[in-house]
Write a structure and sequence with these properties.
The chain is an alpha/beta fold and about 220 residues long. It has a five-stranded parallel beta sheet with strand order 2-6-1-7-8. A three-stranded antiparallel beta sheet has the order 3-4-5, covered by helices on one side. β3 and β4 form a beta hairpin.
Length: about 220
């Protein structure tokens, strides 16, 4: 049986960074669910499919291939054979991904991909509904949170590292809308699982968050 770690929480809490570090420390396969949804949004943009064209986006699902690869110890995501790790973080994708993820057929398709990849390997996954909807029987469930102000600051820093320019106001507005969409979605809404461990990282460093979660995982695995 594979060992599954689920890390949920709103946008900008550092889930992706924390998950990447822990995957390397504990030799867990990192499956980036948020990046997968961003790939669908990017595919829609590349094919000139409006965000309001739900049928067009659904029809697109059978034409795209999403892959997670570790290259030179870095987690990369590929869309139809192209490395889009940086591209999926850009502004046009960031402002449309929440709408794409509201389409239930998109969620069903990607959830099948996630579950298949976790069948025969130990994995760590981060997202909004991993511990509640995708893997309700995960061995470890973490709900990682932080204040809106702190989350915006973190996203600004992340964008700067990727060479993406977005103002504080743009990111704050986008994040508020993302929170609203995530909490109100019909399937897989953002919420803390009853058996999830809550961590408020507002005043914690990445290293402190990683250590706390690693300790939790190691206790569970022993």
């Amino acid at each position: 049986m594979s060992f599954i770690v689920a890390i949920d929480g709103p946008a900008g809490t550092g889930k992706g960074t924390v998950t990447e570090i822990i995957s390397k420390k504990l030799n867990l396969t990192n499956i980036g669910t948020g990046s997968a949804y961003r790939c669908v949004a990017l595919a829609a943009i590349q094919n000139n499919i409006p965000i309001t064209d739900t049928k067009g986006i659904i029809d697109l699902l059978d034409k795209i291939k999403i892959e997670f690869k570790k290259v030179n110890n870095k987690d990369l995501i590929y869309l139809n054979g192209e490395d889009v790790t940086k591209r999926v973080r850009e502004k046009d994708v960031a402002t449309t991904v929440s709408k794409v993820s509201l389409i239930k057929e998109v969620r069903f398709k990607l959830n099948d991909i996630f579950k298949a990849q976790a069948e025969h390997q130990d994995v760590i996954m981060e997202g909004r509904d991993i511990g509640t909807y995708v893997f309700p029987n995960a061995d470890v469930k973490i709900f990682l949170d932080a204040s809106l102000e702190e989350r915006v600051k973190r996203r600004i820093k992340q964008n700067e590292e990727l060479g993406i320019k977005m103002s504080y106001k743009e990111i704050e507005t986008n994040m508020k809308q993302r929170d609203k969409d995530d909490k109100e979605r019909e399937i897989g809404a953002l919420k803390k699982a009853e058996d999830s461990i809550y961590i408020d990282s507002s005043n914690m460093t990445i290293e402190e968050v990683v250590k706390e979660i690693v300790d939790i995982i190691e206790k569970k695995r022993t």
